[in-house]
Amino acid sequence: MDLTPDDSAVSSDLACTITTNATDADNDYINYTYQWYRNGVLFRTLQYSSLWSDTISSADTSAGEEWNCTVTPFDGTVNGTPASDKVTINRYPGLPILNYPANNTDMFTNRTPRYNWTNATDPDNDTLTYTFQLSRYADMSALELNISQIAANSYYNATELDFTVYYWRVRANDGELDGNWSDIFNFSVEKYLSITVETDTIAFGSLFPGDANDTTTNNPPPFRIENDGNWEANISINATSLWDSEKAGLGTRYYQFKANRTDEGGTFDWAASQTSWANMSSHKLSLIRQLNHSDGADSMAVDIRIAARSDEPPSTKTSRVIFWASTYPG
């Protein structure tokens, strides 16, 4: 006899089927008694049946139960040798363990995190997928994301998060049953301001009195600034004096700056930024408005122009340029 299905789903009926008919030495007609046991306790008996099969409805089974069917042949006088088989109803998958973002994380600055968790285990060794949920509320209402059928133990969403508190959880599914939800983790996304001056030195070489040079032809290359933060940045500029001539001090046309694009294209608000030559100052002057923070569109160039007056005495000239960042729209 055979009890099927072997890998029984909660939604499947159980069928106890005689695969080979019993034989009788006296050629008596044989009936069968079916005894069903649920977790070792007798559930139902079908006595002296002429049927070669008996069924338990899925309405009577629950996940994780062990079912045994014992069939005993009867020739009208004596019972024959019983046969039995058993199956375990599909069991619920275990809990995934959340890893990243960690619970109660303040000052979280990654606006496009890859959420990850430790895989759940399944007592039936079923292949698991996962459902991921994200909300702004601790009770997981008004879901921002509700993604199912995730085959991996991670999920990435390229849409940037807002600056607020988020809650997330995960549960496993074995193809039929959903496991319990994991713990709910929360993290708080905060603004993060950071710029890097990738090209931080400009060497003009030698200039003769009356000569001028600038970085617009990339000889020498301009300053290059990248926004490493998670929000648009405003950038200001000031510098120390470059020339010795009293008539070529800061605030004159002999030392100028302007913002320019890089090969990444339109990465800042061109109309609101200083994109024409302006005289350098010891005071902070607005340079860039709304420098993008997205990878591939987060850099800009700062062109410098210098001109040597005819009365400039010969010597090595240096100036320290300082860039100041603030969060947009400040």
For this entry, give a set of tags.
Immunoglobulin-like; mainly beta; six-stranded antiparallel beta sheet; 330 residues; Jelly Rolls; 3 domains
Provide a concise account of the structure shown.
This protein folds into 3 domains: 2-88, Immunoglobulins (Immunoglobulin-like, Sandwich); 97-189, Immunoglobulins (Immunoglobulin-like, Sandwich); 195-327, Jelly Rolls.
Word description of this protein:
By secondary structure, the chain is an all-beta fold. It is built from no helices and 24 strands. The protein folds into three domains: 2-88, Sandwich (Immunoglobulin-like), CATH 2.60.40; 97-189, Immunoglobulins (Immunoglobulin-like, Sandwich); 195-327, Jelly Rolls, CATH 2.60.120. Strands 16, 17, 18, 20, 21 and 23 form a six-stranded antiparallel sheet that branches. Strands 9-15-14-11-12 form a five-stranded mixed sheet, with no helix packed on it. Strands 4-3-6-7 form a four-stranded antiparallel sheet, with no helix packed on it. β11 and β12 (143-150) form a beta hairpin.
CATH topology of the largest domain: Jelly Rolls
What is the CATH class name of the largest domain?
Answer: Mainly Beta
Which outline best applies? rod-shaped
Helicity level: under 10%
Number of domains: 3
Oligomeric state of the chains in view: single chain
Low-confidence stretches: none
What series of H and E elements makes up the topology?
Answer: EEEEEEEEEEEEEEEEEEEEEEEE
Number of strands: 24
Strand count, sense and closure of the main sheet?
A: 6 strands, antiparallel
Through-space gap between termini:
79 Å
Mean pLDDT: 95
Radius of gyration: 38 Å
Figure out the total of helices.
Answer: 0
CATH architecture of the largest domain: Sandwich
Quote the beta fraction: 35-45%
